Amino acid sequence: MSEIQKFYTEKEENIAKQGKDESLKQLGIDFLTKTADTQYSYNFSWMGRPIIAFPQDMAAMQEIIWEIKPDLIIETGVAHGGSIVYYASLLELIGGEGLVVGIDIDIRKHNRDLIEAHPMMKRIKLLEGSSISKEIVDEVKEIAATKKKILVCLDSNHTHEHVLEELKLYAPLTSIGSYCVVFDTVVEDFPKDWKWNRPWGKGNNPKTAVFEYLKTNDNFEINKSIDHKLLISVAFDGYLKRVK
């Protein structure tokens, strides 16, 4: 075994070991719940745009994008635009004609102005409207029809009903070998009495939608090794790899 092979073998063994350590995984959940009150995920930015994400998940997304080298990334949920700028910058580094389509029901003017003025806007297309509306879905499908490698990220309204509908509409656009990543599945892992002050909560969230979707769709498998690697993530059970 070469030194390089040895390194990667040891890494996989360590990840598997972490995945079997329930106390270690609970520490990750405890960190997430403890820092939720201070909105820890709002602390970070990418190339000047607030990204509202955990660095661990963004590291995982970088690994996925480098592995897949998609020519289209579809993301529902834009907010301040940090994640679409991040994905666009990675596509810029990879080269080629990769495009990021960002969809949001309400792209606020101050955010739109800053995104459109960003150097990475050359790889971004913004669509304003409901991600599950026929008009938006038709436009995305038209763009996707010209692409070969497609990565999907779902990060908008986090209710079970909405995410399940997004999965039905967008997951089929994912190319084989690529991912449909469902963010904020961690809502289901928070304590039962946690007050979200949102339409979603325990029993009604992206993770419940993922589990419901997978009951009748075997084209995707949850890549648990990503969860075990990260330990701190808002997307536990949300890294769905298309296998067929």
Molecular structure report:
With 244 residues, the chain is α/β, with parallel strands linked by helices. The chain has one domain (3-242): Vaccinia Virus protein VP39 (Rossmann fold, 3-Layer(aba) Sandwich), CATH 3.40.50.150. It is built from nine helices and nine strands. The strands form two sheets. A seven-stranded mixed beta sheet has the order 5-4-3-6-7-9-8, sandwiched between helices. Strands 1-2 form a two-stranded antiparallel ribbon. Strand 4 (99-104), helix 5 and strand 5 form a beta-alpha-beta unit. Helix 1 packs across helix 9 and helix 7 (160-170) packs across helix 8 (206-215). 41% of the residues are buried. The mean pLDDT is 97.
Notable characteristics:
244 residues; alpha/beta; seven-stranded mixed sheet; two-stranded antiparallel ribbon
